[in-house]
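Please, structure for the following, as tokens.
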Amino acid sequence: MTDKKPKNVFKQGAISSEFIGESIAKHQTKTSIGAHNIFLGQVRADVIDGKTVSAIEYTAYEDMANAKFDEIREAAFEKFELTCMHIYHSLGTVKAGEICLFVFVSSSRRKVVFKALEYIVEEIKAQVPVFGKEIFKDDSHQWKVNN
């Protein structure tokens, strides 16, 4: 890992479709790119023990999480022939139906972006210290179990 400070990947609240669109549009003029792939993690209105999730409140050890996101980013660039990558995760409350994780990768080849995106999302789920408190419609809550 380099000595540079890791990029802050966190956005307060839901990640908007405008932000996602602007991030993608920046790459339309890059003629070396042949494929893009995108993952949008959305809060589900799961029913747990008869109660429906209305939102998730995300918290993180931000410095540690940003460093881990940076490690994942560097490993993905080493493992795959990527041209570009964006990773953003929400902090704070995100309602059911809203986007909480945005991962975008680009490469000259389509097969690369599929493999890279799956690798990145699995690494994020397994390694990054981001925690979600599920808030139910009755205002009760519980800590989310990653699965």
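The two ends are 28 Å apart (CA to CA). The chain is about 30% helix and 40% strand.
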